[in-house]
Design brief:
Elements (H helix, E strand, L loop, with lengths): L6 H19 L3 H5 L6 E7 L4 H10 L5 E3 L11 E7 L4 H8 L1 H7 L2 E3 L2 H9 L7 H17 L1
Antiparallel strand pairs: 1-3, 1-4, 2-3
């Protein structure tokens, strides 16, 4: 028995096969073709020594789309890093991809703007409030009077 196939039947079979493959992979046609447009924003990260490798590993195994960036360091030891992420991704989802344990372990801070990041880099870190600093200054003045 010979089976005759027409071009229309072959096209229908190919289309059904493509649809089944798309359904199996859970991808839209745009994603399969790579034509999905995404707006990227820059995220700046600051943390203690060793955080960069851990964050890179966590992001690699996460579900979010990202691209690593590079911020040069003049001292050679960089306590900061940079990534580009989808504009629609919120900070919470990004931090969940990194993981709370990693964030606490390395004291990671995430900044969405360059201005906030630079300000944090230039700010002198002190645990004293302005009121505490005033009290310390008063105590120093009092010690000089006694001596």
């Amino acid at each position: 028995m010979k089976v005759k196939s027409t071009i229309a039947d072959i096209k229908l079979g190919v289309n059904l096969l493509a649809q089944n493959l798309k359904d199996e992979l859970h991808l839209g046609a745009e994603e399969k073709l790579g034509s999905k447009q995404m707006d990227w924003i820059t995220i700046y990260i600051k943390g203690q020594d060793g955080f960069k490798e851990e964050v890179a590993k966590r992001l690699y195994h996460s579900h979010i789309a990202y691209m690593p960036g590079y911020i040069g360091s003049s001292s050679g030891v960089a306590s900061h890093d940079m990534y580009w992420i989808d504009k629609n991704l919120d900070d919470r989802a990004f931090k969940q991809a990194i993981g709370a344990k990693t964030i606490w372990k390395y004291r990671i801070r995430v900044y969405r703007s360059l201005e906030a990041f630079v300000t944090s880099q230039n700010k002198e870190t002190t645990s004293f409030t302005d009121h505490d600093l005033e009290l310390i200054e008063e105590m120093r003045k009092g010690q000089h009077k006694i001596s």
